[in-house]
Amino acid sequence: MKSKDILNDLLTRNVEDLIVRSELEKKLKSGKKLRIKLGIDPTGSRIHIGRAVPLWKLRQFQDLGHQITFVAGTFTAQIGDTSDKFSERKMLSKQEVAENFKSYHRQLSMVLDMDKVEMFHNGDWFQKMQLEEFFTLTSLFTIQQMTERDNFAKRIEANKPVGLHETLYALLQGYDSVQMKTDLEVGGTDQLFNMLAGRTVQKAYGQEPQNVMAFHLLEGTDGRKMSTSWGNCIFIDDEPLEMYGKLMTIHDNLIPAYFKMATDIPMDVIAQIEKGMSLGDNPRDTKASLARTIVARYYDTKIALKAEKDWENQFIAGEKPSDIETFKTKKGLAIDVIALAFSISKSEVRRLLNQGGIKIDDAVLKDPEHKISTNCLLQLGKRRYKNIKIS
Question: Model-level pTM?
Answer without folding.
Answer: 0.77
